Amino acid sequence: MEQPAEVPLAELGRRFRPALVSYFLRRVRDIAEAEDMAHEVLLRLTDIPLDRLRFADAYVFQVAANLLRDRARRHKVRSEYAAAVAASGDTAPELLDPARIDAGRRSLQALVEKLRELDERTREIFVLYRIENVPKRDIAAAYGVSVSTVEKAVAKATAHLMLLREDGE
Amino acid sequence: MMAMDPTLDEQSRAEKAALWCVRLSEGQMAAADRAEFSRWLAEDERHPAAFDAAVASWTEVQAAEASPEMLPLRVEALESLQRAHRTRAARVTRLSRTRWGLAASLLVAAVLSAVIGYLRPTPFTTSTGERRTAILDDGSVLSLDASSEVEVRFTADRRSVRLVRGRAKFQVARDPLRPFSVAVANRNVVATGTAFSVELVQKTIHVVLYEGRVVVTGPQKKGVAEGPSSTATALPERETLVAGTELVAAVTDGGARVRSVDPVRSASWESGQLEFVDEPLASAVERMNRYTRQPMSIGDARAGTLPITGVFRAGEVSAFIEGVTAAFAVRVEQRDGTLTFLSSGSSTAEGTAITR
After folding, report:
1. Which of A17, B17, B66, B132 lies in disulfide reach of B50, CB 3.0 to 4.6 Å?
2. Are strands B141-144 and B180-184 parallel, antiparallel or unpaired?
3. pLDDT of residue B78
């Protein structure tokens, strides 16, 4: 390989956007702002080489936390921020928490087994979209289905994986 | 199915939550979508929890991404995509096929390296003068001579060992369903429950069988570029050894011979003694060198072939030199930091060196 390629924003988004939006949503209580902040975090991540980013979940979380603190200072709304954090409580686990990701690693085998339970096409679409970062339009075109079908297949597979959390925890 | 079925309800809630993950992962949502997302989150107290769970599952996949368990699924998906591309090539020419084709082949390589990683052998090595005994996972006992190295690779259906250099003796635990084999240079020694040693010295393979039975399979007969005349006659496809015999085979020409040995004496290295019977000096020197930081070497071809018979204590180089130079017309000189055996021009001596 030559130079480490920059990670395209789209791929970063595929990986981290839902978790970042969820993270900010619990703190800013406004979807538009949460999305903006998620976008800002992603922009800051684009100059990290891909091979390092694969293991950078904790770093992503750090960037997000810093951004939140900066913004709170800038807007002089510290109390509001604190209130938001307090309101969110600690009931919901921190989704980008490294310890949590590690726990996820341990149940890797279960996750793969769960994916195996899905029908072949659903599993393939999910893997292509979620892991290989193939654009949904390309997947749809290759299999001759609609983009909405691709989205639904990805959602179905994700929902199936959610069963793991109920079984396991 | 009833609409009120709680699991069905939960399933559709989970899928809806997951669908929001998909939307969010695509980038900034349109204003209408944002409004709908807000509405959905607010309309049911279970929805935010479902969304969190969906995000957690979404993120969890990230951790699995590069794991060996996940790789077969990735290869399957990419190959499926390639197949789909091929069948629909005419319609989707705008897609960059090579890009995903490359991704697929890179992944196949990744899978291979992951599998190889799983099968990575366990190395056992000894340094100069060090002997080592180890009990392997199956209960077999490995006894390693000095300056030796083996790689042990056990799987569900076979026990494979490779002798990289030096000498190793195996007391093999009986397990007929998992054959025990030792690869050495171009040969393979296969056993079921037995004791034998395998050695590589002077590009010659020595297999000594102490008890039981082993089969030594010869090298693959691929191309006979060197020594075309010798291969047909000299090389048996496989040689079955009985206890108390030794197979000696040159790595280069493929010829093998079997001779009887004294099992007790030929295993004396395990107790720190090296016993030679008509052993070429070059082989004897290499074996002695396993135990010394002051290595010896052979200065000329004739010196290397002198037949050494005797018992020497491992590591006692001076006694070895004394014995050899007393029995043969050979002298030792210090050359490039090694003690070098040189034959005297007029040497015709045949003799025996015995030292304790």
Report:
1. B17
2. unpaired
3. 81
Q: Identify the residue with better confidence: A107 or A158.
A: A158
Q: List all residues 6 or more positions away from B3 whose beta carbon is below 8 Å from its beta carbon.
A: none
**What's the whole-number average pLDDT of chain B?**
77
Q: What is the mean pLDDT of chain A?
A: 74
Write down the pLDDT at residue B168.
93
Query: By C-alpha distance, which of A139, A22, A148, A72 is closest to B19?
Result: A148
Contact B103/A at CB under 8 A:
yes
Nearest CA in chain B to A145: B84
Interface check B22 vs A, CB under 8 A: yes
- Complex confidence, ipTM: 0.74
CATH class of B122-265: mainly beta
As annotated, the residues of chain B forming the CATH 3.55.50.30 domain(s) are 272-343
**Mean of pLDDT values over A44-69:** 68
Distance to chain B for A145, nearest Cα, Å: 11
Q: Which of A130, A162, A164, A165 to mutate to test the interface with B (most CBs of B within 10 A)?
A: A162
pLDDT at B235 over 60: no
Interchain contact, B24 vs A21, CB within 8 Å:
yes
pLDDT of residue B352: 40
CA distances from B25 to A15, A133, A135, A143, B82 (A): 7, 11, 11, 21, 24
Q: Where along chain B do the CATH 2.60.120.1440 domains lie?
A: 122-265
Mean pLDDT for the stretch of residues B144-158: 85
Tokens of A19: 């978790």
Using one digit for the tens of pLDDT, what is the confidence trace for B56-102?
888 878 767 766 677 778 878 887 887 787 776 544 444 455 556 66
Helix then strand count (H, E) for chain A reads 10, 0
Q: Which amino acid is at B230?
A: S
| pLDDT greater than 50 at residue B23 | yes
In this structure, of A80-89, A116-125, B160-169, B300-309, the range with the lowest mean pLDDT score is A80-89
Taking a contact as any Cβ pair under 8 Å apart, which residues of chain B between 56 and 75 contact chain A? 56-67, 69-70, 73-74
Contacts of A107 in chain B (CB under 8 A): 60
- B246's torsion region: left (phi>0), alpha (psi -120 to 50) or beta? beta
CB contact under 8 A, B57 and A161: yes
Q: Which CATH architecture has domain B272-343?
A: 3-Layer(bab) Sandwich (3.55)
How many beta carbons lie within 10 A of that of residue B196, not counting itself?
26
Largest CA distance in chain A: 53
